[in-house]
Amino acid sequence: MLPLVLGLLIFFFLAIAFVLIFRYLDVKTRQEYRMLYDNEYYKKNVGTCPKGCKEGICQSTSCYDHSPPNPKCCAFDFQCKHCTTPSGQTFAEVYEDIKKSYNLNRNSDELKRLNDRIFKENIYIAKINKYIEEKKL
Questions:
Q1: Contact present, 64 and 18 (Cβ < 8 Å)
Q2: Where are the beta strands (DSSP E) in 90-135?
Q3: 20 to 30 A from 64, CA-CA: which of 35, 91, 107, 114?
Q4: Is the distance from CB of 33 to CB of 79 less than 8 angstroms?
Q5: What's the pLDDT at 46?
Q6: How far is CA 9 from CA 1, 4, 17, 20, 64, in A?
Q7: Which residue from 35, 36, 34, 70 is spatially nearest to 52, judged by alpha carbons?
Q8: How far apart are CA 26 and CA 7, in angstroms?
Q9: What is the spatial distance between Cα 25 and Cα 30, in angstroms, rounded to a whole number?
Q10: Is the Cα dihedral 54, 69, 61, 124 positive or negative?
Q11: pLDDT one-digit tens code per residue, 4-17
Q12: Sign (positive/negative) of CA torsion 79, 82, 84, 85?
């Protein structure tokens, strides 16, 4: 009985250690990618997108490089916020414009209606995405 309990304790300890190590490496990698914006590549190429960005979202799955991070290829959505839209703005500027207009509606009733509308639109978009995935459009 004692060897079984000891074996289970060792298993749980190793599982917890594995999860903590994985989480640490994930956070460290995200921080390294965030620091890329101080990189000369981004200073020279403001408005251009790293490879894999589409409409402000990173759709690449092959660029998650732990060391060192690759500034020319996205691994996270925040890397795509400096891409330019067809209107010439960056996605970060568009987000800030939306945020400013959202914050102007300080009336709680208006804010609630706006949040409800956004929630309903998100449900609608999720249904469309599910339909597209099922029909493989």
A1: no
A2: none
A3: 91
A4: yes
A5: 59
A6: 13, 9, 12, 16, 33
A7: 70
A8: 29
A9: 9
A10: negative
A11: 888 889 999 999 99
A12: positive
Q: How many domains does the chain have?
A: 2
Same domain, 14 and 71: yes
For residue 81, what are the domain limits?
2-104
User: Pairing between strand 57-58 and 53-54?
Assistant: antiparallel
Radius of gyration of the chain (CA): 22
SS3 content of the chain, % helix, strand, coil (to 5): 65, 5, 30
- Rounded to whole angstroms, the Cα distance separating 119 from 110 reads 14
| CB-based contact 47:91 (threshold 8 Å) | no
pLDDT tens sequence across 72-97: 777 777 777 778 777 777 777 777 77
Q: How far apart are CA 96 and CA 103, in angstroms?
A: 10
Q: Based on the fold, state whether residues 73 and 123 are members of the same structural domain.
A: no
